[in-house]
Amino acid sequence: MAGGGTMMLGIDIGGTKVSVGRVGRDGRVLGETLTRPSKARDSAEVVDIICAAVHKELAQGGADVAGVGLGCAGTIDHAGGVVVTSPNLPLKNAPLRERLQERLGLPVTIENDANAAAVAEHRVGAAVGMQHVVLITLGTGIGGALILDGKLYRGAHGAAGEIGHTVVEADGETCKCGRRGCWEQYASGTGLARVVFRTVGLFERGAFSGEAVGALARENFAAAHVALAEVADWLGLGIVNIVNIFDPEMVVVGGGLGNLGELLLGPAREMLKEALPPGRDQTRVVSAALGADAGLIGAALLAWDEFGVKGKREVAE
Ligand SMILES: [Zn+2]
């Protein structure tokens, strides 16, 4: 079970949707990617949803697929192929790799979704040629991933890079991790929604997406600028922490809210002055380059690493 195909399948699954695409060795997405809902009640349904998406994608022309790379939210035991925990999927100590290999008849590798996105940005996106990169993804929460000395850093348990759950405000907003004042409660879509709710007041909490606020800011609505400035301050504060801990060459900002680009990054970058030298002058803070496909591209690139040579992992095992 391993092949010398000309493409890998990259998959990115989160709590609401699963995306699948065929990816070449150079990280290029071949043809259209496919996105479907991923609402599942248990791990068996997660497997069903992934397999259904894969079969649909294969039907579009995937006869020559050599393997599968899966990016999944949560703590992933990459070596064991197990999803240890996931914040938004019903997976706990789930041997997802084995289940998928049985069902698909293809070799599968599993990685945390932010880690996969970091691999993609590092190899074929915004951070090509860099040795030390921190990726942050701004969505409902904040995901993080580390490329250190040119390599993905997973930590002892596959849980490294959870910078969204570093506390920036003692006794602050309650976070779903159980603590209070986590960074992801402030510098994320959740944080922006809270600020807009507080400043505009009239609207239901969460009624404004980051995109909508960005559009209003571009049309010079003062309240939108004020809201974005507050979130950008929180973003900058967290980036200063990252710079002081990791001394990266580059911080790459992606995710849905990250699409606001310079509207957020410009003001956040100002705060870099508070970091220690020389990072405060030399660390670059840039937008991610690969958009929503980063996770599935990175997962596929990791599959290329493992299965690109025919039978490589089987030999290793
Ligand atoms: Zn938290």
> Quaternary status of these chains?
single chain
Q: Looking across the biggest beta sheet, what order are the strands in?
A: 3-2-1-4-8
Output mean pLDDT.
91
**Low-confidence segments:** none
Bound molecules: zinc ion
Q: Spell the H/E element sequence.
A: EEEHEEEEHEHEEEHHHEHHEHH
Number of strands: 13
N- to C-terminal distance: 13 Å
Structural category = alpha/beta
Can you give me a brief rundown of this structure?
The chain is α/β, with parallel strands linked by helices and 317 residues long. It has helices spanning 43-59, 96-104, 113-124, 189-200, 210-218, 222-246, 262-270, 279-282, 294-307, 312-316; strands at residues 7-13, 17-23, 29-37, 65-72, 75-77, 82-85, 92-94, 108-112, 133-138, 142-148, 151-153, 250-254, 284-287. The strands form three sheets. A five-stranded mixed sheet has the order 3-2-1-4-8. The chain has a five-stranded mixed sheet with strand order 11-10-9-12-13, with helices on both faces. The protein has a three-stranded antiparallel sheet with strand order 5-6-7.
How is the topology of this model organized?
Layout (H helix, E strand, L loop, with lengths): L6 E7 L3 E7 L5 E9 L5 H17 L5 E8 L2 E3 L4 E4 L6 E3 L1 H9 L3 E5 H12 L8 E6 L3 E7 L2 E3 L35 H12 L9 H9 L3 H25 L3 E5 L7 H9 L8 H4 L1 E4 L6 H14 L4 H5 L1
Parallel strand pairs: 1-4, 4-8, 9-12, 12-13
Antiparallel strand pairs: 1-2, 2-3, 5-6, 6-7, 9-10, 10-11
Helix pairs in contact: 1-2, 3-9, 4-6, 5-6, 6-7
The protein binds zinc ion.
